[in-house]
Amino acid sequence: MSTSLRLAIVGCGGMGHRHLMGLVELQRQGLLTLDLVAACDPVAENAQSLARLAKAELGSEPVPVSDLASLAAHGVQAIDITSPPALHHHLIAEAAAMGIHVMTEKPVGLTVASSLEICETARSHPDIVISVAENYRRDPINRLARALLDAGAIGAPRLLQMNSVGGQNTMLITLWRHMRRLGGILVDMGVHYGDMLEYLLGPVVSMYGQVRLHEKERVNLVGKAEGVLGNPGGFYAKWQAAMPERFEPDAEDALYGLLNFESGAVAQYTEDHAGWGQPLWERTIFGSEGSMDLTEDRHGQPLTVHRTDGHGAAGAAVLDLVPDFRLDPLTAQLFGRDRLWTYEMDFTFVDRKLLALEYAELAHAVETGQAVEVDAMQGTRAVAVIYGLLESAVEGRLVTMDAVLSGEVSGYQREINESL
After folding, report:
1. CA atoms within 13 A on the CB side of 238
2. Model-level pTM?
3. What is the SS3 assignment for 255?
């Protein structure tokens, strides 16, 4: 951009502090086109903490403020929403009315209805950019997987198996992820997978699901457990320490489903955050001419293509199946090359590089008017994929994406919508 986009981070807890590092990564690469001028949170200490971190990492200190109305005085042009999901639709409507562009964490809204409110805000403010920070699809290995599918490396996709099992009885980053009215773990984590399902195989048209609440009590590890389940990147310990050591969740922790795609493909889906013993992570796609084993998002492990005709590939050889594959220039710069089949990097650095891509896309979209990759509607579809499975469990039958998006089936979400 010719001038920096004046930005505020809205929601200055663990996720807000984590997002800040995406700006730090852009600055480190000499690519920063956003100027963080405000840190917004109704809890003054949260805003002040993020401001201090920005001063230490970026060299300039944003002004701590308590609400969106205060941003106008500081010339804010865009906000990054990292607040709890229940606030997203209110904040986005307020920002759009002020002429402020938006990047928001997922889920775009807490329910399908609140997500559709955001879609309506986008339609009624066509000059405002609304981007959903969906990072899994931006992983270079997932970009390669999509290129292989587009090139017909396994023929026409027929079946996707997505299985994620683990978590035991521990608190998954924060207490609110275990409370249905605040955004239960199946939705908060599942929207990543819902987005990936459509990124890889196209539109979902119907779903059937079963849900369970296996663990009736959860244990707060107070940031002692590193990694995805405990305290990714080390940003949450201060807030985790203030949460109860043990608590009773009311949001289900396991989802088992079947999804049908417009293409005719089918997905078998397991998202179980109460798994004991050996953890499981699997994403395998079977096609008309072969299969592909994908690897866990944000870990950089190589994928494998299997074909009975002997033309499969593993490791660097998968690049031979897609000779025209190239990462976009910014991703290539951040990850070191434009034809990438693996990478070795600590999760903290992978995380900040993907956040950097989201920030850079926001700035580019504001400057050029180009569409963002994950807009409000695509973000809403990811929410609807997961809620469709949950609604199916309530209905005891297959439900369609159209019925979920129209509100025709919304029994699972009724109490949540009333609370909003």
Report:
1. 11
2. 0.95
3. strand
